[in-house]
Amino acid sequence: MVFVLIALGGLVALILLALILVPMFIDEAALIALAQEAVRDKTGGELIVAGDSELSLFPRLAVELNDTQLILPARTEYEQAIDAKLRELSLGLSILPTLRGTPEFGELRVDGLHAKITAPQALPPTPEPLPDMSDRDWERLGRTLRSEREAQRQKLLTPTNTSVAVAIAADNLTITDITLELLDARGRLENKLLLERLTVRDINTRNEPVRIDTAATVQSGESGVPIQLDMTGVVRVPSDLSQISIDRLETVIAGALAEPVKATLTGKLTLSPLDFKGQLDAALPGGDVKGDLRYAALESPQIDVRLETERLDLDRMQPASAGGTNSKASAPSANSGGDTRTATTPLPPVPLPVGPLKLLDLALEMNAGELTTAGQTIGNAQLAMRVRDAIADIKYLRGTLHEGQLDTRATLNTRRLQAELAVEGGMKGINLDSLMSSLGTPGAVSGRVDMAWDVDSRGATAEALKLGLDGDFDLEGQDVVIEQISMQGMMCNAISQVTQKPLTQKMPTKTPLSKLALGIDFDDGKAEFDDLSLASPGLTMSGDGAVALDSFDFAMVLDTRIDKQLEELDPNCRVVERYAEIDWPIACRGNLSGKPGDWCRIDVNRIAEQLLKNEAKSQLEKKAGKFLKNLLNN
Asked: Is the full-model pTM beyond 0.90?
């Protein structure tokens, strides 16, 4: 037994002696030469180690490289070219803990990596475009994908007798000054990633806190707006890697929107099958949002979000504009390469960003005390949306809008090149003054109306969807008052011009409506009034017209019948029988963003024309009657 112990002790001594002496005989230059030869043979590139290098085995396995460059040229016109320079790489691994199965690293450090990746000089041949799939094909594809994911999920959930425990410990992982540039085939910058720092401290798999701190910047092109990402947090990793706990992950994103976005995430991450359940608390430019978030890679929906907010203004969530721009900067310079476009040149239409919807499997529910979009604020808003098989289905959007009750539904079908939109719903009891104030025309109309709509459209851009609207819109009003126009006053002034008798009383400045009904037919880029009916004391109006959806210019004509109630306003506004028998046309023209008081005028010439025709007809009838009477008497 003693001899066995002596033998084992001697073996250990020999191993320790080897670990101490072997590094003395390692030729680091020869190892580097072997690595350079391997890179040259396998890739045709070059590995250049210009700085000092170090390799040791005991008491720690340590590797250090300085001022190293890797050049990988494109071997064909379809391959990328890579040029990467590294200022410093160092790592250390304790030998004895590693032999016991618990690797212990010291500080892992990477500093000053600058990599340029140049796009291929030629792109592979463009594949044949896929044929448009029918709705049945899309639904069959969706069922197949969900079935495959479920089968994979069940396989991963099947219990096994094997269990793996991973024990890793390290002091710190420090990565600093990392730059990645993606260049086009001509060497011009397309995208740039700058990782200022990534620090991971107290790395372990003992389910104890691991602290993360990172800062990075992403930029698109030379003139793109830099997007800054800062993230700090604490996670816990167990030895069996069964479930990673995110105690707190705080993120600040600046540059993506006009104001920074701050978010805090907590939850549990299961690696197999991949599943995250957690809570999100975000401070957005338009308000604070919190709720539950789940991502299940092999389930449907894959993403399930339920949000709550007191107030969310979507209009404030605008993209950040390029800094430092001014009117002088917008003028073309001598070195602009002949680009003489000015700030007034219209930009090409931007396609709808519907690509992500094609493969998205999402369920979203949101409750908001106030939800603002396009200048309209919905109180107590409730939204439910489901995205699956390339269709975004807004099951309902409900709430209080301009003191009325909103209830609408919509679908956006992105299965084909042109998106297909369908919207139906309505609002009850809308306050017109509130609505017109939100559109920039306060004090124009008061009262309440009910609205109902059923429209659809198709197009590849938002403008195309607007101009392609097709369907119906109906409106009915109660106790409506046109505040800045007096139809009765206009009529009395017209009668005064016809009779040549001046008015003696002051005319009203408003038009109360006892009846308001409007039917709109959307078609060919216009909203056509095909059923407009108004009633006011002394007046009954009906007419038609249209609004151009691209400019909101409009024109309409109201054929008006008058009655004796107008005489109550002024003795000289007397309605004789021949006045009541004709139409008194009111022609309105303008832009919906203009002043209502400038919109409408009475067509006096057309009134006079009708009176002359009626007078001529009356005289002709009298003469014909007299002629017949004389003929019969004879």
From this structure: no
